[in-house]
Design goal:
With 309 residues, the chain is mainly alpha-helical. It has two domains: 67-191, no CATH class; 195-309, no CATH class. Helices cover 63% and strands 5% of the residues. The chain has helices at residues 3-8, 23-26, 57-61, 67-98, 104-122, 132-151, 158-164, 176-191, 196-219, 232-255, 263-282, 291-307, and strands spanning 33-36, 39-42, 223-224, 227-231. Strand 1 (33-36) and strand 2 form a beta hairpin. Helix 8 runs parallel beside helix 12 and helix 9 (196-219) packs across helix 12 (291-307).
Length: 309
């Protein structure tokens, strides 16, 4: 081949083709290449690239618990816990009675005091949902049904009968104890924890009236002139303990942020409610209206008028 032909028709063996781009880099558009004296250098190493992974929202939603379900789980668990505590309390005092650690009368009154106050203390365990009050009211509702079937002798729970009756008669369950759980349900559903009315009413019924019976039976030799079944010691103890328990419960709910008070105004009003409740409890109307009805209803009426004015 002549020199001219070699110039016009260069041989493939001496034809300088650009180096083929690697299949790896050819299909990776985010990698930029630079050439320096036929040397390829990566400006961005693929080893440190972290691809963004987007999860399907429908896939993620399967593992997110709806707010309503969370509220249901919260209140359901609280209901089971409080109900279990109520049964444990009655069972414990029944056991104390059987072992002669406590006599039946004292055991009955301690159940009267503690069951209501512990129920009142348990309200903040429930959620902030407006429906939470109905979950709380379910606890005394179960006890209402339990008292009803035993009082009608449809079944016989001797432990329950001994713990909450005076003489061991199942029919007693249909009076004072049944009214007691009705008031618990009423205060939970109507007033709940954002109103001082229900709190003070239960405090007077459980703390005040319960302590009055215990002190009155032990130290009640001096009877009230207009009611020989009541004593000065019992009425005074109801006034003092009812007032202190009411203030303590209001402070408890205030500390948790459910209610806020001007204490200079609320203390004398609670004192007035305690005096009225004590007077009502001392009246000779027990044969007509049970204390578990008269005391809380009078407390609700006076507290409603006092706290709103």
């Amino acid at each position: 081949m002549t020199l001219l032909s070699s110039r016009l028709f260069p041989s493939p063996s001496v034809n300088h083709r650009p180096p083929a781009q690697s299949t790896t880099t050819r299909h990776l558009p985010w990698i930029k290449l630079t050439r320096t004296n036929d040397t390829v250098r990566f400006l961005c190493s693929p080893a440190i690239i972290k691809p963004v992974i987007r999860l399907d929202e429908r896939f993620v939603a399967r593992f997110v618990v709806p707010e309503n379900a969370q509220d249901l789980i919260h209140n359901g668990g609280a209901t089971i816990g409080v109900l279990g505590g109520a049964y444990a309390l009655v069972f414990a005092f029944d056991d104390f009675t059987r072992k002669n650690i406590l006599n039946q009368g004292l055991s009955r009154k301690l159940v009267h005091i503690l069951s209501g106050l512990l129920f009142l203390v348990s309200w903040p365990i429930f959620s902030n949902s407006p429906k939470a009050r109905y979950f709380a009211a379910f606890v005394p509702l179960v006890n209402f049904l339990r008292l009803l079937v035993n009082g009608l002798s449809l079944t016989s729970d001797q432990g329950l009968i001994k713990s909450v009756t005076r003489k061991g008669d199942p029919k007693e369950l249909l009076r004072g104890p049944l009214y007691y759980v009705v008031i618990l349900m009423l205060c939970a559903v109507v007033f709940w924890r954002d109103s001082p009315i229900g709190v003070v009413s239960l405090a007077m019924m459980c703390g005040g009236d319960g302590v009055a019976d215990i002190i009155g039976r032990r130290y009640g030799s001096m009877k009230i002139p207009y009611n020989q079944k009541k004593s000065w010691a019992g009425s005074i103890s109801m006034l003092i303990f009812g007032f202190l328990v009411s203030i303590g419960m209001l402070y408890y709910y205030s500390a948790l942020g459910h209610v806020q008070f001007d204490w200079w105004n609320i203390v004398p009003r609670v004192a007035l409610v305690s005096i009225v409740a004590t007077v009502v409890e001392s009246l000779p109307i027990t044969d007509v209206v049970d204390d578990n009805i008269s005391v809380p209803l009078a407390t609700i009426a006076v507290a409603f008028f006092t706290f709103h004015h």
